[in-house]
Amino acid sequence: MHTLAPRERLPKGIRLLIVARAVNRLGAFSLSFLTVLISTDFGVSAATAGLVSAAFGLATVPSRLFGGYLADRLGRRRTILLGLTGCAVAQLGIAAAGSLPVIAVFAVLLGLVFELYEPPSQAMIADDVPAADRTRAYSLLNAALAAAGMGAGLIAASVGRWDLRWLFVVDALTCLACAVIIGLVVPPDGPRRGRATSVTSSSAWRDPALLAMLGCGTLLALIYMVIMILLPLTLPEYGLRAADAGLLFTVSALTIIAGQPLLRLRPVAALPPAAGLAAGAAFMAAGLAGYALAPVLPALAVATVVWSVGDLLIMGRAYAVVAGIAPPDARGRYLAVFGTSWGFATVAAPLAGTQLLERLGAQGLWACLAGACLVLAAASVSVGRLIGPSAA
User: Fold this and answer.
1) Has residue 138 been placed in a domain?
2) Alpha helical stretches, state H, 186-272
3) Which residue from 192, 236, 268, 365 puts its CA 20 to 30 A from 109's CA?
4) Are 176 and 88 within 8 A, CB to CB?
């Protein structure tokens, strides 16, 4: 019988950081309604409203990079507070905007501050959690955000029936609540690392191990975003309702939450980084192949559990690997560079996914994604030669 690996209790500050981020995630539903708000309140076309949303999306890419820079220069805690406060101001501006130009300005502002707090949050975990426990810590953060995401949907369903602008007010309040928690419980930043930081200021983009992880991370993010965007569009081809995707996404979130003890099983905890990443990609390939082979709702739910186990094995481990290969004074920037994979994927996924769906149909789309997961598994093994056996 496989026993659980010994577990050290995560530092109190990290546990409270995860709680604070979950509080913030409870309100992170407003952006899904930005296009609807613009088109309904200002009477513009969906295409015009979409341009504003696209401008927000583009602004998030430099936001994450700037967040990593500030995390290493200004400090983790200060950068998180700056990002959360900036998000609250921008969201309240959107809620109060009386014209299209004003709401567009606040949407771009929101994009520029939206990712500031991600790199310092991830860097704080790398700073305060021993290397052996980082995969578990990052996975716990992912699980907490997944759990809060389910609650966010319920809040959106109730508040959105009243007035869409109040969604942005609630989102702003959760940002401020998160900032208050972090301001009260996270210790102040230490002295700035001026000279040491300047030495490594540009090393992240020249580190072959990080660039290899960025390539794998971008492929993973692309696969994940195609699932999120295209699953509702494919279900009607199977005779199901698009809304049934909500059930499958809930199954995925519950799997990630309930599966946390899996990471403590000795065979899983002892996996070398590359082997763990490859195993996760293989599970994702199996689950997505199930989407192609068994298009009925119960079978799709089982397939969702399988690919979500793969997500569980990969997500926390990938961030732990990046934190492990980063110099201590450049963790914020390394994690920020790795995080840009989600920005790239957000732009590419709707284009690539819809083209595959149009040309190959639903089953062909999922078969292609399963193949992409196998490519990711092979790439992870190759990356293992660069990151070494103890990067996570």
Assistant:
1) no
2) 194-199, 208-234, 244-258, 266-269
3) 192
4) yes
170 and 262 fall within a common domain? no
Domain contains 140: no
Instruction: Give the CA dihedral 125, 316, 219, 357, nearest 10 degrees.
Output: -120
- Pair 120, 67: CB distance under 8 Å: yes
Domain membership of residue 217 as a residue range? 203-392
Residue 358: per-residue pLDDT: 86
Q: Residue 383: what pLDDT?
A: 86
pLDDT of residue 4: 46
Nearest to 212 by CA among 98, 347, 333, 322: 322
Which of 77, 86, 82 is CA-nearest to residue 185? 77
User: Which of 54-83 are b and which e, b meaning 16 or more Cβ less than 10 Å from the residue's Cβ?
Assistant: eebbbbbbebbbbbbbbbbbbbbbbbbbbb
Candidates 289, 28, 3; CA nearest to 150 is 28
CATH number at residue 20: 1.20.1250.20
Is 338 found in the same domain as 211?
yes
Specify whether 169 is located in the same domain as 220. no
DSSP category for residue 258: H
Angstrom distance (rounded) from CA 253 to CA 328: 32
* Span 322-372, pLDDT tens digits: 998 988 888 889 999 998 888 888 778 877 888 888 889 989 999 999 999
Chain Cα centroid distance, residue 190: 28
Looking at the structure, tell me whether residues 42 and 108 fall in a common domain.
yes
| Structural domain total, the chain | 2
pLDDT < 70: residue spans in the chain: 1-8, 27-29, 32, 46, 153-154, 156-157, 159-161, 190-202, 388-392
